[in-house]
């Protein structure tokens, strides 16, 4: 019973706290690095390099991937488009962080689910009105 509680209740909470702490740490690190003269583009490139090395590279060794995974051109294009949008969003966020403090940037990151919900409502109304 205790293992089930840990898996269902404690693990998501711990993951959420760890993500928020790492988000605050990256914001503070970015603010200090840009004050020393590091470029926005270099910081984003370094962050993608570090995440690829420590997060994506070990995945095939941890999980058994299915051999039936087929990548077609449409899926590859969608993944590429998602990556481009992510880089642009990070650059815009770091540019805004240059004008404010890391505390405010970390607090505003908690509003992302609310903005996502509002955009989902707007786009669903837009899509339903076109039918």
TrEMBL record:
It is found in: Membrane. It holds the Pfam family EamA. GO terms for cellular component: membrane. The chain crosses the membrane at residues 40-63, 75-97, 103-128. It is a multi-pass membrane protein. The keyword Nucleus does not apply. It comes from the Eukaryota. SUPFAM superfamilies: Multidrug resistance efflux transporter EmrE (SSF103481). Keywords: Membrane, Transmembrane, Transmembrane helix. One of its GO terms (molecular function) is transmembrane transporter activity. The keyword Phosphoprotein does not apply. Residues 26-123 form the EamA domain. Belongs to the drug/metabolite transporter (DMT) superfamily. Plant drug/metabolite exporter (P-DME) (TC 2.A.7.4) family. This is WAT1-related protein. It comes from Phaseolus vulgaris (Kidney bean).
